Amino acid sequence: MIKYSLRCDSDHQFEGWFRNGEDCEAQTRDGHLECPVCGSTRISKSLMTPRVSGTRSQDVMAHDAAAESVSEGQSQAGSDSQPVALRDNAPDPRQLQAMLRAYRDHVVNNADYVGDKFAEEARKMHFEESEKRGIYGEATIDDVKSLVEDGIDCLPLPTLPEDQN
Predict the structure, then answer these.
(1) Residue 163 lies in a domain
(2) What is the pTM of this model?
(3) Are 40 and 55 members of one domain?
């Protein structure tokens, strides 16, 4: 899975997860992506900071935070549009957060943590070299791409606001 920073033609920014770059391009081209703020289907990729799962130093986290605040400042300064209210049918962010928290808690409470051996363990189960079970852990972007190319499904656990503290 790969995460892209996206932007609609009204300059609203949001993120999306895709199986690979081609899937992102195809969904964008075919109008399957929609801005969660205004509903526009005219979407393009915007600048993004790549992130790799695992332990990160405080310097890298500080750099990411600075880059995000600069990016947000440029977006707001360069936009002449007025603030737009979320659409009537937009889900409540608190409900979404609660659902994501419940999903993550379910995985953590019902699966085995395998740490940085995630790709290796997933591959063993896929090729029936070990018993199939729920697992979670860390993997590099390259490991995840390789798993997906081998037909092994995997998804990232959601990052919640309390994870950023």
Answers:
(1) no
(2) 0.46
(3) yes
Residue 41 maps to a domain: yes
Instruction: List the one residue out of 162, 155, 161 whose CA is nearest residue 17.
Output: 155
Same domain for 60 and 131 = no
What pLDDT was estimated at residue 164?
Answer: 72
Instruction: Provide the edge-to-edge strand list for the sheet that holds 43-45.
Output: 13-18, 2-8, 43-45
Residue 82 per-residue DSSP state:
P
Angle between helices 141-149 and 118-126 (to 10 degrees): 10
pLDDT value of residue 131: 95
What's the confidence (pLDDT) of residue 62? 47
Kindly state whether residues 67 and 20 are assigned to the same domain. Answer: yes
Q: What is the mean pLDDT of each run of 10 residues along the chain (165 residues)?
A: 85 85 87 86 74 48 46 47 59 84 92 95 95 94 93 88 74
pLDDT of residue 2: 80
Distance CA(48)–CA(63), nearest Å, equals 13
Q: The domain containing residue 78 runs over which residues? A: 1-85
- Which residues are CB-contacts of 36 (< 8 A; sequence separation ≥ 6)? 12, 14, 86, 90
Same domain? For 70 and 106 the reply is: no
Task: Please tell me whether residues 45 and 18 are part of one structural domain.
Answer: yes
| 160 domain-assigned | no
Residues sharing a CB contact under 8 Å with residue 24, sequence separation 6 or more, in sequence order: 2, 4, 16, 18, 45
